[in-house]
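Exercise 3.2. Students should predict the tertiary structure of the chain below and write it as structure tokens, then compare their answer with the key that follows.

Predict this chain's 3D structure.
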Amino acid sequence: MIYKSLKEICEMALEGQIPFWKVIQRDDCTERNVEESESFEQMRAMYRAMKHADEAYTGTRKSTSGMVGGDGKRLEQYVAEGKAMSGPFVGKVMERAVKMAESNACMRRIVAAPTAGSCGVLPAVLLTYADQIDADEDKIVEALYTAAGIGQIIAHRASISGASGGCQAEIGSASAMAAGALVHLQGGSNEEICSGVAISLKSLLGLTCDPIGGLVEVPCVKRNVIGAVNAVTAADMVMAGVVSVIPADEVIDVMGEIGNEMPKKYKETAEGGLATTPTAMEIAKKIPH
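Answer key:
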């Protein structure tokens, strides 16, 4: 990886007179010794895998624990009936985020973006944008490069692992990636992409990883919704002209600092937080192992 910060990516883009996403693609080509066309088609295949995972959702499957399954279908019906107070776009984002996260819990094929536990965030916003705004598939693939570059920087400067940095490192990272991707799709500048990252990640700083029974189900699935919707609101704020006071790289560094200082019981151990509530403890006893 030739860049260590979002600021460096922006500087490289400016120097080479290329867009943010192109810096990421060229780095991928250099690192894996592939042509730009091959890299682009591989990223396209990633997007189509997300699309297929969404289309393959049936709503009939339940996770082994029985805690997860069917909520995506409930949301689908609710949104289709025009009842969603958040409107059709955000309603569809919510629906897709749940469907993808449920598919992960039910051992279906998903795309970790950046992790399996946060797999619903990025697909939810990109697939819905493609449907609602009728975006060209190539443009969505460009947005995936943008998201990938953001994820690389977060992984390098902080963490994308719940076991290392809490859920802020998983859902927070995914939300930041999705926000940056949305700003790109809306025609935002490189600086605006970074503001989207900063605003979305700031909103989820300190989020604990406290799964019931140690399974990536509760509260993980519903947190994918929060991450996805947070990305949409962050992107909208940026496109309205709102600028993050704290630069994105500094926000990422703070996320890493918080993750390092977060007690172990709040980092995927199921020894604290929601996982140790009386109800969660009772549920955990009944989960088959």
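Discussion points: The chain has one domain: 10-286. The longest helix spans residues 137-157.
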